């Protein structure tokens, strides 16, 4: 059956999630060249992946579009990549939903668009997020650039858990700085910053491997990007 909804893993652009209906209905994950079903509900309407931890996934169900029987069972959440699921319906005004997303500004909130009853915010105990925060002292996380490799522009994404001043720079493989943006204060949440493949003088950089580096008062993070000419 064709996919009705699709989403890309925020941590890995090569991992894709798809929702399908009817006989093959459920939530599917494409990883390492293979599709696998990680949830078997035939009436999943939409799914979302947590921006800080790809093991945390949620989906919302809806009714069959061609008859009046009620099959919706609300929202489901996993913190182990789909090995086990639990219902997350406390306070939900109705079990039918059309769309769902994690709140990028709050690690323990799911936002659900219901079928005719507005949107609903569900709080949950994100034990996996808390465990990861305890294991990772960094207060910000640099996510994968997209696209990468790139030709004209690439966008880096980063998450910070509190307001912080951050300087963003690009270096070539010789360690020479190619581009730098002045230090700027960012609020807590998900942020994006684009590089157009040019140096500080506005000249086009040569094709090759570069390193995008984020530096704050307390820490730094970096990742490689490939500029194709």
Tell me about this structure.
By secondary structure, the chain is mainly beta. It has two domains: 3-133, Methylamine Dehydrogenase, Chain H; 137-227, Macroglobulin (MG2) domain (Immunoglobulin-like). It has one helix and 18 strands. The strands form five sheets. Strands 1-2-3-4 form a four-stranded antiparallel β-sheet, with no helix packed on it. The chain is elongated. The model has no long low-confidence stretch (mean pLDDT 84).
Task: Provide tags for this entry.
2 domains, 229 residues, mainly beta, elongated, four-stranded antiparallel beta sheet, Immunoglobulin-like, Methylamine Dehydrogenase, Chain H
Give a topology summary.
Blueprint: E1 3-8, E2 16-20, E3 26-31, E4 34-39, E5 44-49, E6 57-61, E7 75-78, E8 86-87, E9 97-102, E10 109-114, E11 119-123, H1 127-135, E12 140-142, E13 154-160, E14 164-172, E15 177-186, E16 189-195, E17 208-215, E18 220-227
Antiparallel strand pairs: 1-2, 2-3, 3-4, 5-6, 6-7, 7-8, 9-10, 10-11, 12-13, 13-16, 14-15, 14-17, 17-18
């Amino acid at each position: 059956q064709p996919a009705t909804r699709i989403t890309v893993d925020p941590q890995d652009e090569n991992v894709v999630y798809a929702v399908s209906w009817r006989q093959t209905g459920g939530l599917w994950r494409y990883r390492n060249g293979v599709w696998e079903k990680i949830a078997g509900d035939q009436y999943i309407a939409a799914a979302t992946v947590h921006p800080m931890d790809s093991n945390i996934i949620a989906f919302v169900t809806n009714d069959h579009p061609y008859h009046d029987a009620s099959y919706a069972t609300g929202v489901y959440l996993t913190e182990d990549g789909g090995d086990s699921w639990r219902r997350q319906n406390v306070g939900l005004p109705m079990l039918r939903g059309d769309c769902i997303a994690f709140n990028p500004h709050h690690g323990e909130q799911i936002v659900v668009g219901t079928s005719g009853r507005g949107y609903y915010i569900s709080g949950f105990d994100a034990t996996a997020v808390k465990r990861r925060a305890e294991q990772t002292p960094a207060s910000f996380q640099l996510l994968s650039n997209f696209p990468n490799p790139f030709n004209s522009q690439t966008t880096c994404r980063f998450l910070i858990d509190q307001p912080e001043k951050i300087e963003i720079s690009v270096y070539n493989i010789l360690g020479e700085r190619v581009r730098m943006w002045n230090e700027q204060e960012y609020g807590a949440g998900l942020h994006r910053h684009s590089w157009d493949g040019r140096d500080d003088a506005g000249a086009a950089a040569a094709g090759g491997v570069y390193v995008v580096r984020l530096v704050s008062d307390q820490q730094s993070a970096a990742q490689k990007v490939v500029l194709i000419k």
